[in-house]
Amino acid sequence: MKELTVQEHERLIRVARGDEKADTVLKNAAYTDVFSGDVKRGDIAIACGRIAGVGSYVGEEELDFSRLVVTPGFIDGHVHIESSQLSPEEYAALVVPRGTTAVVADPHEIVNVCGMVGAEYMRKASSRTPLDVILQLPSCVPATPFETSGAEISGEDTAKLIKDRHIHGLGEMMNYPGVVSGNADVLLKLRAALAAGKGIDGHAPALSGRELNAYLCGGITSDHECTSDGETAEKISKGMYVHVRHGSTCRDLATAKNIGAFNFRRFLLCTDDRNAADLRDKGHIDDALRRIVKEYGIDPVAAVCCATLNAAECYGLKFRGAIAPFYAADLAAADDLSGFNVKYVFKDGVLVAENGKPLFKPRKKYLPRAVLSTVNCAPVSPADFAINLKGGRAKAIVLGKGTIVTGSETVEVRSEGGDVLLEGTPLLKLAVVERHRATGNIGRALLKGYGFSGGAVATTIAHDSHNIVVAGDDNASMAEAVLRLKEAGGGLAVVLKEGGAHVLPLRIGGLMSDLKCGEFIARFKEIEGVAHAAGVPADTEPFMSLAFLSLAVVPRLKLLDTGLFDVDKFAFTDLEDV
Questions:
Q1: In CATH, what number does 73-317 get?
Q2: Average pLDDT over residues 110-136
Q3: Where are the domains of the chain?
């Protein structure tokens, strides 16, 4: 938030008294009072980037807002900008016109690939836009000690980095087994954040009872992984803030039905991971608001509070998230509090978006060489994707619907010539190919529920170490998909046995595109359509659903470059150990 000079502060007080004209006055506006829970009406006076007061005011510029409802600018309580697959500049151009003026961003995707130069890239690129990006220091680089990532941040590193003035807090502590067991390095990270007076985000799927108590004794205050009413209730009762998540793969809006008249101040809204097409076509926090109001009957002002003041207070963002004197003039004006169709967006008192269009144009994209050319994998051949089983039974990872929690199922398999036979089965091969240090590591598994056939689908987005994840039923296609991604410097690929190769490069860390938003979405929809035509169900995002199959901090069975991993046991497991 813009700091005031002495002269600006003095002027703000004069404007508040009515002794001077405001810079801008939104005349006769209905506005949400998130402190009282009411919708009130009055003139909103803006000066020096702040709200001077609400009442009756005169301004140098006066805008008739009598037919609009003004809310504080929306705050996304937990997001990985990288998952939009857009540069920070293009991401801001999408979400700001939707009413979002700040996001609490954990850049652990690009930091797992590039180290802290990735976080610095995110900071500098975002600073060229009117979107406030509240950066967290990634706590799990790598996410677990069992896989290969492009960087490592130890407890000692964290103790130094957390003091940086650009770092607002410690990002989601995904290594919940490490917290519960009292791992020394994990504890060092937690204590460093607490000593620096900075908050700690949580990530604790299905954790309860004494284990949850132990986790919270790490000083962790929030969680975005609640998937049941009981889990939500327990975490709220133990003092946590709970995020209602509205992502592209993780669609947990049903958590909102737990929002009540007494506990609503403990809920935030977040997207976590939401792709560019969904952001453009469906929306951001505005979409979450309209849906929880319409589908779950949440009081509109309480819903707005979850998207504004609650997030500001959870993350210590002083004088944000409300329409009140001295608060930042970060405002969204919509038709009403049911559709949340945002018409105008102000950031620090400046009109930055109108009728869904950004009024800002960032300078030439910031693209340092350090975040480019990040795919460094050993050569692969079709033989590398053979799965040689001794018996006729094996474990399969089962893809979930609308969730990143996977199942584990024992399946009957046949083999021939040292490889499994997939024809006539609902199974595919799944592989994770290490792409940071050219180790040659390849994890292999079986996948059920993806639906694809006739080639391979691959991506360099593979949470959270971001190796190459590839699924397919043809070894040669799988090898070619990996090769194509290496040549492209990262991206998305679909290789059809009888239809050629389709590649969408993601040059920035193998995670984000340097294309303009419209061009990227058009190309994304094209390659997504190829995957759907080859059997991936219409309600399954082909690439994001694969990207979470290597996330070894979300149950149950996941695949790393180093092998098959049982998250419940937090240990490796054998494919044939059934």
A1: 3.20.20.140
A2: 97
A3: 73-317, 372-572
